[in-house]
Every structure is written in structure tokens, then in C-alpha cells.
């Protein structure tokens, strides 16, 4: 079982193409089933395993896993919803010499392996099958999904039939979008990869720990990065973003607007039209607390005309023309409502929506949420999943904007800066634990660095 950080993300179609390019589908099924059996033995101890097998190749993987467990001397039973319907699944079923219990009458076991339906599901599960799946999962101590929890799509995070919440999902050969995208991802539990030797290529990857550059003996505050935060109607939000930029590693942060108070390391000046002409400014962050009146519009226009690298967040996204030409590197940080307002509503997957938005506006897009998607105009995508649910609080987006400004001002290219900021933000939330507020999140940025 391999952690998925940094690994490619494949859709159902690209996964099928990778399998066909490999050529030996029977060997792939043997590898997949053996990998599932190895993981189950490692986690089950001496406990009995019940494998639920569906009619397709996912069920075939389950039959192979059951055979491998039996050969290893591990107690294992098999239950099936229907007879196998593919040649590979029938061949795998033929190698299982034990009984196959009907799903409806199967007895529970402490360890449950879900091999009912995997990649490519396009319709809901039979209601009776789903009921017995839930019954058996509720009685199990540990539920392991093979490839994907049965009931979710592969490519867009949709749930066609609500599955039980699995403890572990074993991604076969590659990570799929629904391992990461909500709401499907919440049912997957921990996701680990079983390597099938496919070496798939993809421009989409799972976020991985960035290679942060620490200061050296020749570093000074401006070479670490100067960030300018443009304040507005609600200075608390821009101050929060300013402090986040400091905590994330910026050497100098200038808050332009109203507001007083600590920390004393934050430089404060009133807003002026010439405030952004300082050539040492490495990034401008605008939007947190900006407001949406004429004053806000004027400040946004000044920031856009400054030629400085930009992080555009919050209120500024509602004032922005997404199709206007860009004169500087730009990162947009919309949530779902803001991306609807900027680029129109769509039923496409979150990955596809972020990719289209980045290409259309010629910017890097951080499409925020529990499944944050970062997209570049050249189609590169990275996805950060499993964010803390406690990030659903006022000000946490302002913290991300400030951290993004710090990463951009440090000299990282926009896509890498966005990725580093999202990773920092997620890890800071993990350090905070439960019931934290945005101010706590700011402090945790320093601990993560």
C-alpha cells in the first residue's frame, strides 16, 4: 500500500487506455487481487474476511483476493450479488473453489472487502444489493473498498448510491478523481495505491509536500519576499491575510488601509494610488475585506495596472472581469459560488471546471473547498483532498490568500506558489485540531514551516 501524495490522477477512460497499453489484463487482475489480499492480511490479523464480488472485473479482483487469502491459510468467505459477466471475472471465479454465498443471506465478518463495483460505474446500485451491502458493512470492524467504494462515479465525485463509509480504499494502478473529489471522497476513508506497473502519464496529480526554500546567510527581508495587502471596507480580513503572509514566510508585509494593533512586524500605511509602485513588492494580495463599492473598484483597477504579481480573492473576484487581458502573473482563489459568478455554472467535474477557468482567464486558479483543485493555464492540475471540516469558518480563506501571496512573493512560479500555499493551509488546519478559528490557523502556519 503506497501513500498517494504526488501520484498521477487518471479518469476511467485514461485508466482503460493504460490497461490496454499494458496488454495483459489477466496479469493485471492477478496483481490487483494479490495486492488486495496482502493489504487485508496485514490489517485483519486472524479475523475472518468476507469478500463481496460484483459481476464485472472489480468482482474478478475480489475473487482473486479471496483465492490468495485462502492459499495463505487465512479464513475467508465470498458472497456475490450476481454471477460474473466478463471473461476475466468468470475466469477468476473459476479459480475460487469455495462456496459463494448469496449477498442477501451472507453472514457478516469482522473484515469486509467491497469488490462489488469499481471504476466506470454509471448507474445506481440495485436497492436490495445496496441494503445488504450496508448491513454487512455495519457489522464489520474494518471495511476495505477495492478501487472505489461501490456506488460512486469515477471521474467527478458524484454519488449514485450512498455506500457505507469505508475505512480504506485501495486504488488499483492509479488514483482516480473520486478518491479526492467530494462528495464521493468522504466514503473512501484512507486511500492507498496498489502499484500495477502501469506508469501512467497525467497532467493531474495529487498534491505533495512542496520543497520549501529556507532563508540562507545572504537572505534579507526583501529577498524573502515583500507582500502588499490592499485593505478596504473590512480591515480585519486584510489584516488576517497580512499576518498569514508573515507567518507563511514573507520577509516584509505591507498593509495598505485602515486598521491598528499587533503584530508590530506588520508595516501599516494608508492606501494611496502610488502605494504599489515600490519595485520591491513581489506580490499584491487584494480582495479580503475589500468591499464591492466604487472605492473597491478603483483599488482593484490600480492593482491590476501595477504589473505586480497578483493574488485575487474574495470581494475582488466579484469585481473582476475574468476575460480581461493579464499584464502580470495572477492567482485567483474562488470558492464554488465565486467560480459560478466568474465563469458560469457547470455540471462538469471540479477538476475540469478549474482547468477550463485557468485556460480561459490565463491565470492559476485555486478552486477552494474540502477538495481544493489548483489548475494552471497549461492544463496542469493538482488536487488537495482530506482538508479539515473545521476550515468551514470565517476568515480561513483570507489566511489562504495571505499564504499564497507569501509563496508568490518568494519567487515561486504561480502554480508552484499556489500549490505550496494550499499544502501549508491544509497542514496548519491539521495542527489546529478541532474547533479552531482563523486566528489559530494563522499561528499554525509558522509551526508547519
UniProtKB/TrEMBL annotation:
It catalyses: (6R)-NADPHX = (6S)-NADPHX; (6S)-NADHX + ADP = AMP + phosphate + NADH + H(+); (6R)-NADHX = (6S)-NADHX; (6S)-NADPHX + ADP = AMP + phosphate + NADPH + H(+). Homotetramer. K(+) binds at residues 58, 114, 150. This is Bifunctional NAD(P)H-hydrate repair enzyme. Its cofactor is Mg(2+); K(+). Residues 10-204 form the YjeF N-terminal domain. The gene is nnrE. The keyword Ribosomal protein does not apply. The keyword ATP-binding applies.
Amino acid at each position: 500500500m503506497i501513500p498517494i501524495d504526488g501520484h498521477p490522477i487518471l479518469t476511467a477512460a485514461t485508466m482503460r487506455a493504460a490497461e490496454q497499453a499494458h496488454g495483459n489484463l489477466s496479469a493485471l487482475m492477478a496483481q490487483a487481487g494479490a495486492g488486495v489480499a496482502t493489504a487485508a492480511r496485514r490489517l485483519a490479523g486472524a479475523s475472518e474476511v468476507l469478500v463481496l464480488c460484483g459481476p464485472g472485473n472489480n468482482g474478478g479482483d475480489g475473487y482473486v483476493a479471496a483465492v490468495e487469502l485462502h492459499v495463505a491459510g487465512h479464513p475467508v468467505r465470498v458472497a456475490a450479488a450476481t454471477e460474473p459477466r466478463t471473461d476475466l471475472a468468470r475466469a477468476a471465479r473459476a479459480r475460487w473453489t469455495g462456496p459463494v454465498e448469496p449477498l442477501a443471506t451472507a453472514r457478516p465478518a469482522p473484515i469486509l472487502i467491497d469488490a462489488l463495483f469499481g471504476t466506470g460505474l454509471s448507474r445506481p446500485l440495485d436497492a436490495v444489493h445496496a441494503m445488504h451491502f450496508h448491513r454487512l458493512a455495519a457489522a464489520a470492524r474494518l471495511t476495505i473498498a477495492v478501487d472505489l467504494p461501490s456506488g460512486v462515479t469515477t471521474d467527478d465525485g458524484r454519488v449514485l448510491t450512498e455506500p457505507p463509509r469505508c475505512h480504506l480504499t485501495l486504488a488499483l494502478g492509479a488514483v482516480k478523481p473520486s478518491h479526492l473529489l467530494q462528495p464521493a471522497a468522504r466514503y473512501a476513508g484512507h486511500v492507498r495505491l496498489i502499484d500495477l506497473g502501469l506508469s501512467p502519464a497525467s497532467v493531474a496529480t495529487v498534491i505533495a509536500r512542496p520543497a520549501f526554500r529556507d532563508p540562507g546567510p545572504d537572505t534579507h527581508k526583501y529577498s524573502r519576499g515583500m507582500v502588499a495587502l490592499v485593505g478596504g471596507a473590512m480591515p480585519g480580513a486584510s489584516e488576517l491575510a497580512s499576518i498569514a503572509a508573515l507567518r507563511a514566510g514573507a520577509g516584509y508585509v505591507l498593509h495598505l488601509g485602515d486598521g491598528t494593533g499587533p503584530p508590530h512586524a506588520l508595516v501599516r500605511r494608508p492606501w494611496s494610488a502610488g502605494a504599489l509602485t515600490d519595485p520591491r513588492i513581489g506580490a499584491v494580495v487584494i480582495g479580503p475585506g475589500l468591499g464591492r463599492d466604487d472605492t473597491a473598484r478603483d483599488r482593484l483597477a490600480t492593482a491590476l495596472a501595477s504589473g505586480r504579481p497578483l493574488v485575487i480573492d474574495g470581494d475582488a473576484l466579484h469585481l473582476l472581469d475574468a476575460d480581461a487581458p493579464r499584464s502580470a502573473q495572477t492567482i485567483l482563489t474562488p470558492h464554488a459560488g465565486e467560480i459560478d459568478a466568474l465563469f458560469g455554472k457547470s455540471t462538469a467535474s471540479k477538476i475540469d471546471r478549474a482547468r477550463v477557468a485557468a485556460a480561459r482567464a490565463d491565470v492559476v486558479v485555486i478552486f477552494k473547498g474540502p477538495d481544493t483543485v489548483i489548475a494552471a493555464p497549461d492544463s496542469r492540475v493538482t488536487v488537495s483532498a482530506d482538508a479539515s471540516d473545521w476550515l468551514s469558518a470565517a476568515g480561513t480563506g483570507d489566511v489562504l490568500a495571505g499564504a499564497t501571496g507569501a509563496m508568490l512573493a518568494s519567487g515561486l512560479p504561480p502554480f508552484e506558489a499556489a500549490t505550496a500555499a494550499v499544502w501549508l493551509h491544509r497542514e496548519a488546519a491539521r495542527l489546529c485540531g478541532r474547533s479552531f478559528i482563523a486566528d489559530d490557523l494563522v499561528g499554525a502556519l509558522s509551526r508547519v514551516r
